[in-house]
UniProtKB/TrEMBL annotation:
Residues 16-222 form the NAD-dependent epimerase/dehydratase domain. This is NAD-dependent epimerase/dehydratase family protein. It comes from the Bacteria. Pfam families: Epimerase. The lineage of its organism: Bacteria, Bacillati, Actinomycetota, Actinomycetes, Kitasatosporales.
């Protein structure tokens, strides 16, 4: 495990104020860093120690404004699923150029899409990139460009990959707004694909801890890391853990093929159909490398579910 003195606080620009960006901004501020949280509106609930800025980082001028004065830039931007193929390359181009111009480091929140179908094999950072879907190929191309920019000495870059998110604030996830509210109220819970296969889920606060730690360790640059992810269970086992905590059985409806459900409408599911293989083969993410290098262990799944259910309980009480 690498040991180093506590890094001095530096200015961080977090691009994207969704669940991951917001959790990361909160984590960085808690570590004493100066944090700017950027999205298109620049509005939202106050986060202690964090300032907000409105900027469109898919444009060069917007990206320049977003990263001005930052020593570290975090790319946590996401867009509507049906717009990803068009917009994400624009964001990359603008953010890379602005970060290079600013002389900052770039930390990118990434997905496991570039691996493509693994037929149940455990995914490590050494797993080949064999994506065949449009979104998988797009992500793989963007990642190759990020790493090339680093190799060419243009921008120092590090990528942190996560499995499906869950946790406080995470609504649009297969373990999110379609599951926890129903678990608490007795509604229908969708079981996507084969719920008896192992499936990794990454806790949103571990996403934040992992990205913040990579940001504080320049020796991590130039490669992909898997963010802390608890050992994979089957989705049915995860559901059983939720049942234990709520004290009621889940009303599980199996979704065996792509179709609208919960927060996922027809537009989303039409785009998600090509990624549905993630629920018909095992999806196991190994994050031992970041644990061995920086001592980052994932939050125990039971604790993460407790915190998530508590957040959703509060969320439902305010609706």
């Amino acid at each position: 495990m690498t040991t180093a003195p506590t890094p001095a606080p530096v200015p961080h620009a977090v691009l994207g104020a969704g669940p991951a960006g917001t959790a990361l901004a909160r984590e960085l501020a808690g570590r004493g860093h100066e944090v700017r949280l950027v999205d298109r509106k620049g509005a939202g609930p106050a986060v202690e120690g964090v300032t907000r800025l409105a900027a469109d980082v898919s444009t060069v001028d917007g990206a320049r404004a977003a990263v001005a004065g930052a020593a570290v830039v975090h790319h946590c931007v996401n867009v509507a699923y049906h717009l990803q193929l068009e917009v994400m390359p624009l964001v990359q181009k603008a953010v890379l150029a602005a970060t290079e111009e600013a002389g900052a480091r770039l930390v990118v929140l990434d997905t496991i899409y570039p691996y493509g179908e693994t037929h149940g094999a455990v995914m490590t950072e050494e797993t080949p990139w064999r994506a065949t879907t449009r979104k998988g190929l797009m992500r793989a191309e963007l990642d190759a460009l990020y790493l090339a920019a680093h190799a060419e000495g243009r921008v120092r870059v590090v990528l942190g990959r996560a499995a499906d998110f869950f946790g406080p604030g995470v609504l649009n996830s297969t373990l999110g707004g379609a599951v926890f509210p129903a678990a608490l109220t007795g509604g229908e819970v969708p079981g996507i694909g084969d719920i008896d296969l192992p499936h990794s889920y990454t806790y949103i606060r571990d996403v934040a801890r992992g990205l913040a730690t990579l940001a504080e360790h320049p020796d991590a640059d130039g490669r992909v890391w898997h963010l802390p992810t608890a050992p994979a269970l089957t989705t049915r086992q995860v559901f059983a853990m939720i049942e234990e905590r709520t004290g009621r059985p889940l009303d599980i409806t199996t979704i065996r093929e792509p179709r609208p459900f919960g927060p996922f409408d027809e537009v989303f599911m039409a785009e998600y159909a090509e990624m549905f293989y993630q629920h018909t083969e095992g999806q196991t993410v190994d994050s031992s490398a970041i644990r061995e290098a920086y001592g980052l262990a994932p939050t125990p799944l039971g604790d993460a579910l407790d915190e998530t259910l508590a957040w959703y309980g509060d969320f439902l009480a305010t609706r």
